[in-house]
Amino acid sequence: MENQNTQNQSQNQIFTTNFKAGQRMFFLNMCEAKNNSKYLKITESKQISDGEYEHHGIMIFEQDFEKLTKALTEAMSKVDLKEIAKKESKKVNKDYPNAGLAWSEEDETKLEKLFKKGNSTEALMKVFGRSEAGITSRLEKLELIEA
């Protein structure tokens, strides 16, 4: 029965996206009901123990989309997105001091050697002071992993 419910859910999904915020994951699914009306399902998921997740969801129906858009626009107008981006940039630079800097040939050689020895991405992030995306993209460029 669960498989059938999953299949039915995916059949009525028009669009889906998600994003991670700290320890939580948010899923946004635009769906279509049997009567062809649309609704937005927003689900928050967080891990509460190994392999166990807690989910909370809300549904917003199409007659309320305009109200939702207006409320979100009003709420977002109260924050300075440029200031938030600056704070995030400072945090990234603190966590990954080499983020955005050019890779030297010496670092690329060292990265290749450590990767081939079986070091994890997390370990490589610490060694090179770079983000996961930075390590991954360099491994792809060096053709050590597929894009």
Task: Describe the structure in your own words.
The protein is an alpha+beta fold and 147 residues long. It folds into 2 domains: 2-78, Roll (Nuclear Transport Factor 2, Chain: A); 91-141, no CATH class. Helices cover 46% and strands 27% of the residues. It has helices at 2-11, 65-76, 81-95, 105-116, 121-128, 132-141; strands at 13-21, 24-32, 38-49, 52-61. The protein has a 4-stranded antiparallel sheet. Strand 3 and strand 4 (52-61) form a beta hairpin. Residues 1-8 have low confidence and may be disordered.
Q: What's the CATH class of the largest domain, please?
A: Alpha Beta
Q: Please report which band the strand proportion falls in: under 5%, 5-15%, 15-25%, 25-35%, 35-45% or over 45%.
A: 25-35%
Task: Spell out the helices and strands N to C.
Answer: HEEEEHHHHH
The tally of structural domains comes to 2
Mean pLDDT: 87
Strand order of the largest sheet: 1-2-3-4
Q: How many extended strands?
A: 4
Poorly predicted residue ranges? 1-8
The 3D shape can be described as elongated
Separation, N- and C-terminal Cα atoms: 37 Å
Q: Over the alpha carbons, how many angstroms does the gyration radius reach?
A: 21 Å
The CATH topology name of the largest domain reads Nuclear Transport Factor 2, Chain: A
